[in-house]
Task: structure prediction
Amino acid sequence: MADPKGFLKEGRKNAPRRPVEERVQDWNEVYPGSMGRALLPIITEQAGRCMDCGIPFCHQGCPLGNIIPEWNDLVWRDDWEGAIERLHATNNFPEFTGRLCPAPCETACVLGINQDPVTIKNVEVSIIDRAWESGYVRPQAPEWLSGRTVAVVGSGPAGLAAAQQLTRAGHTVAVYERADQIGGLLRYGIPEFKMEKKHLDRRLDQMKREGTVFRAGVDVGSESSPLSATKLRERYDAVVLAMGSTQARDLPVAGRELGGIHQAMEFLPQANRAALGLEQLEGQEQILATDKDVVIIGGGDTGADCLGTSTRHGARSITQLEIMPEPPGERPAGQPWPTYPMTFRVSSAHEEAGERVYAVSTQEFLGDDDGNVRALRLVDVVFENGRPTEIEGSEREIPAQLVLFAMGFVGPEQPGLVEQLGVDLDERGNVARDNAYMTSVSGVFSAGDCGRGQSLIVWAIAEGRAAAAAVDTYLTGSTTLPSPIPPTARPLTV
Result:
């Protein structure tokens, strides 16, 4: 174990972020230098807070099965090469999860029963950032090739994890992505201030050196693509569907047709392109929040990403709406340890600007004479028997020249590849699969959000790793690849 008395001597500490007035002027990460570098002065003592708890519930909190106490111990002993070996044993991309995951491992930490939990996520990102700088992250090309070919459709975390595992197993893997660059939401969707794209690019470079082939700008199965589902099946021995859950939830109320109302995933990718100095896609004009009253409908991480982006655009005001009541500051009694509680959380974006309004429902969008949105009509709600009920007399208007929907996603897009393959869907509209991640079509597998539904990055990577093991078994009859979770696994609940 790490320091036997570390949890008694040290309290929980986080690295200070850059001052708000400084960081809102650029698109760089909110930590000085990088998150991992900013944490180095304090991370050894923080890793030493990991206690010899006997049964480390952090393992159950994380679907990847990260062996967290081991790399905490190695960091405390200053064995950084050993730490990255242990971290990479279960997680292909800790530089992504260490920045983007909401850390269910920390809410399952045994120390967190009566103290602040270990800063697991911070230790993780410190290990990988230092590993990159020290040259500990090297390509792991296979020693032999199987002669089998695999197509991975989608280059988000699930697709990349599956591709890397299968490449290392000796298969020839091609990753198809409909966007003009590889990365899925990691490329176009996650703002730079949460994760700069250099972290993605150097991991992709490692994968290319291992032998993975990337094909960007190919929308498999679309009318404009020469690569149909039939040709894909003919060309490859196996196919992994990892297209994500990209059908955004809409709000069909009066005035929805007005100009200035957009889905978050129309707004955020354009901001990514602008931040990177890339031109907008042909026929698209960038959606800007500059000098506008911005209303974001949805109180989750995507809404916070819209908030931070609007702040950097120079929005006049930003209001984030959530239909649920404001969550408590402490773990509620109905969500006991080690489950992931719904508590009030403050992201870096919330520190910078904006107002959060809870327990409200949008009744109507109001327009101006030019057909653009000018305001929202809201009403307060109270939950009765699990359903929101409007409070009479609480109606009011708030100004809005830009409205962004960040209400989540309802499943994968079905026209095109999914329809052409003829795979079955489950009752929620996701791609159905058996216990070996195979769909109803032999040789076609499903991993990540397109099969699970909208979820966390750690679940996507875990499913990508598990699907890779299933594909390897299908192609060769056996596998040595790890399979962290079955497709039926779900987060810890009461």
User: Anything to note?
Assistant: The chain has a mean pLDDT of 96.
